[in-house]
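Weekly puzzle thread! Below is a chain. First person to post its structure in token form gets bragging rights.
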Amino acid sequence: MNETQPDLSRLAELAGGLGLHEHLCLLYATKEEQFAAAVPFLRAGLERGERCLYIADENGAAAVMDALRKGGTDVDRSLRHRALMIADKQETYLRHGRFDPDLWIRFLSQATHEEGAGKFSGVRTLLGEMTWALGEDTAPDSLIEYEAKLSYYVRDHDVRILCQYNLNRFSPQLILDIIRTHPVVVYGGIICPNPYYVPPEELLKLNQAAREVERLLNNILAWQRSVDQLRALTARLQTVREDERTKVAREIHDELGQALTAIKLEFTALLRDLPAVQGPVGQRSQSILKLLDGTIQSIRRIATELRPGILDDIGLVAAVEWAAEEFQARTGINCHLDRPDANIGMDTQSATALFRIVQETLTNVVRHANASEVNIRLAQEHGQLVLEVRDNGRGISEEQLSGNRSLGILGMRERALLIGGELTMSGSPGKGTTVTVRIPHSDGGKAGAGT
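Winning reply:
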């Protein structure tokens, strides 16, 4: 299943945002994953003042209460006020001596409607450990029928239900059917709508296979349309951002830069017209001139960082060369550029995307790599343009590459995809990281974007 350690830190926040009429399945491989989701789900119900029922099986009542206490729940108070109930399979699923989906759902319906002295009256939040089904004579079809009908029940009643399935104990075939019967899935530290959910009106009918084929095909089309729309939106946002960067850079350079230069010239002329100035006044005059010079240089640097004019005027190779020199001067890290002998013709969008990838990669080197050397290579190989940035730092790990917080990496990959290319990253501990971008390329690009 999930080979990397899931990030469980957001489950409490996500569980707290769930309302009534929710039917979820929790798929877990460890007790830590199970309680990381089950405890905040139950605690959220208690904090809303709801009656909560936990049906324990794989874990005893003591283990459940201990996990709740560790999660910050006042278990004794909740039990004393009958807000929390912990039951076993004999009191619930097997209360009639055997498991019957219709009888159990009918009992749940009565319990959620009743407000009285009954043990399970007024239940709003229910969590069930489903391992009880493994030790009983419960046919898989009966369990799937129950889960499908439960979606009907939850939709029409003021209740939320979390069904917990241990991935190590249930067969893959059964887990597949469990996924198909739950509108919401909790897995790997996330709670999300289930695109593979099959509504009970489809699942329980005889021609279910034909209906599901049609639904799956429609889901595929909808998914692809969503991807295309998101990619088009991303491309538009990138274009708008670059246009705005260019506009702001030009205004800073042309208006602020020219105004400051004019102030410097006027001030210098004023000093020449005045009698020789010495002492503190002369020192202050020189200090003002130095301040003006420094401010003018800062304006130029900011404008260049927003949108290097060299990228538009000369092209990608020259812009990358400038970025490498500026990076080395600013950080002290040796940066070598291996550039092609021939010119590279390229459209503005591709040149901008590759230049921004270089910038982001060099920024990551400074922040994370602890490197002493960076090598940048631009080359044309087999109808492709290859950009490679390699450092000799600590090396990126697989966990960092796959982490959902690696927004910089996601941004670089998206930039490459938008110009029809592919970005790959690899790293070895202590041997550095390599970022490689390959895009389709021929010499038919716009000459103004080359070098």
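Puzzle host: Confirmed. Bonus trivia for everyone else. The first helix runs from residue 11 to 16.
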